[in-house]
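queue> pop job 88
queue> type: inverse folding (structure -> sequence)
queue> payload:
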């Protein structure tokens, strides 16, 4: 196995040296060789340094899947800065908080969401914004045609001393960034945000050593199966998500393989990309696999090139697992983990995946399955809460001591992360998912914090209490339902109004599908919201065949 005490970009540099002319990225039909990708990263790293970005400065990446994301991510790391990738559909309400919490002084954003950056700029610690467009790195003739036929989304950019053009920076900067001596075991490689239990997202951190350790273990899973310099990976999952970062690094960019970047996950475009580029590797959330299987044009595409498919981010329904294997004669393997600890387990590729299993734990990840109340080990084969530790993982969140105390526990001098997932292990060491904590909803592969939505609802002047739960749904995992209690003197507030309130403040995938009004919420004797009672109530209602009520 490759040494873990190196920076994340070191593995990419090795691939650039071994496969300089091999295609690293394909984006909107344009190919980027490893040589060209390295030069673009070097140019952007040098440009950041010229703008004043220094060691440990935070650079927010507010982009969809595109080469600029990869260039920004590695360019920041190249000069010792810390990339902070976030969802490109976050609202000003969300992005304002994230910028200030991370302490990001630089943001790399799409021109289509520049107006959000412009809106929050005065209220944040930002010093500069670098703006790009979907087609900035395409040849001139493609850009011209795209704009002439109105095929390229674009936004209005106002000039200013703190606003910079990505394309101009790349074009005008020499590819000679300063060389820094980074301690990989101490230096942060990123800050990734995930839902918090207090209503605010929390920053998950990893050192370069931590990131490299689990990238190496992903590589180990692929040994003998994933061929260096020969595979084509269809990159649909968002790169701001750690699942996508782990796979693209472990299976693609450190192996000299090719990633086809899909900026928008449209099913027909995905199927066309698999056929056109002879895609061999694919990663998707269970919802995406279902959407592909149910696409009425599926027979028009040749997907016979696929060799390995992975699912992650949510539970893979057995029906989807079996239908995919029957249709394409390729099984769906599992990747399981969390933003806090990286990948914890993957299905081995040297055998058929066990139906329902999320795979075998990585060698570096120690696990325990415990009673959540006592933290005592459960008997072998019994379900319990999964705890994970490793010498390489972070032992807390970015500037969140209360969140850290709630999510991490010390047992016999070792810090363990509480996954908030309930699993069991069979006699062969395979992990099987059983249930999840009531505080987290998995919608279309996204991890949605119940508390975050509740906090937004309770900011509404008419709302005195709110409880958010996930309602099981075979197509999307869980739908988001809110139980709301209004103030006594309030009249005329509808579910539609509260949905609009959420839509203005939350990314679209966090907006509730259902809102139900009640007179009170169940609480414990000490006043703690008993969310699980409502969640269990909703499950019983579905089992009895009743429709979900709400607005």
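queue> result:
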């Amino acid at each position: 196995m490759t040494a873990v005490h190196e920076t994340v970009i070191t593995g990419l540099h090795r691939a650039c040296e071994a496969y300089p002319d091999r295609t690293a990225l394909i984006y909107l039909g344009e190919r980027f060789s490893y040589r060209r990708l390295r030069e673009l990263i070097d140019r952007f790293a040098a440009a950041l340094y010229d703008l004043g970005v220094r060691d440990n400065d935070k650079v927010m990446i507010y982009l969809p899947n595109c080469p600029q994301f990869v260039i920004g991510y590695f360019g920041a790391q190249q000069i010792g800065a810390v990339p902070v990738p976030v969802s490109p559909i976050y609202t000003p309400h969300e992005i304002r908080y994230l910028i200030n919490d991370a302490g990001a002084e630089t943001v790399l954003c799409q021109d289509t969401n520049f107006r959000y950056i412009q809106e929050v700029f005065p209220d944040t610690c930002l010093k500069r914004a670098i703006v790009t467009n979907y087609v900035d790195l395409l040849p001139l003739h493609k850009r011209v045609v795209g704009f002439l036929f109105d095929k390229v989304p674009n936004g209005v950019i106002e000039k200013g001393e703190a606003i910079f053009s990505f394309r101009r920076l790349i074009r005008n900067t020499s590819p000679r960034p300063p060389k820094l001596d980074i301690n990989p075991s101490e230096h942060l490689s990123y800050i990734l945000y995930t839902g918090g239990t207090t209503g605010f997202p929390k920053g998950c951190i990893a050192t370069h050593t931590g990131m490299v350790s689990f990238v190496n273990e992903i590589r180990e899973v692929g040994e003998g199966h994933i061929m260096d310099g020969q595979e084509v990976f269809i990159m649909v999952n968002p790169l701001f998500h750690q699942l996508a970062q782990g796979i693209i690094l472990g299976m693609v960019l450190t192996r000299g393989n090719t990633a086809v970047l899909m900026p928008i996950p449209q099913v027909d475009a995905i199927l066309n990309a698999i056929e056109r580029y002879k895609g061999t590797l694919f990663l998707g959330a269970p919802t995406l696999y279902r959407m592909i299987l149910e696409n009425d044009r599926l027979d028009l595409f040749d997907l016979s090139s696929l060799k390995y498919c992975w699912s992650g981010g949510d539970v893979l329904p057995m029906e989807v697992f079996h239908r995919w294997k029957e249709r394409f004669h390729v099984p769906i393997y599992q990747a399981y983990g969390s933003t806090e600890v990286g990948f914890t387990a993957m299905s081995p590729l040297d055998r058929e995946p066990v139906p329902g299993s999320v795979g075998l734990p990585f060698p570096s990840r120690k696990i325990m399955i415990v009673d959540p109340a006592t933290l005592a080990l459960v008997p072998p084969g019994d379900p319990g809460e999964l705890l994970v530790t490793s010498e390489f993982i972070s032992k807390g969140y970015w500037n969140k001591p209360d969140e850290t105390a709630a999510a991490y526990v010390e047992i016999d001098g070792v810090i363990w992360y509480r996954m908030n997932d309930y699993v069991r292990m069979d006699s062969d060491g395979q992990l099987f998912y059983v249930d999840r904590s009531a505080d987290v909803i998995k919608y279309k592969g996204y991890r949605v914090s119940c508390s975050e939505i509740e906090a937004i609802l309770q900011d509404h002047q008419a709302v005195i209490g709110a409880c958010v739960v996930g309602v099981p749904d075979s197509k999307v995992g869980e739908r988001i339902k809110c139980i709301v209690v209004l103030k006594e003197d309030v009249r005329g507030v509808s579910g539609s109004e509260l949905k609009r309130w959420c839509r203005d403040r939350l990314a679209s995938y966090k907006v509730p599908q259902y809102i139900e009004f009640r007179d009170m919420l169940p609480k414990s004797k000490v006043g703690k919201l008993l969310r699980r009672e409502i969640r269990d109530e909703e499950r019983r209602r579905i089992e009895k065949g009743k429709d979900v009520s709400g607005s």
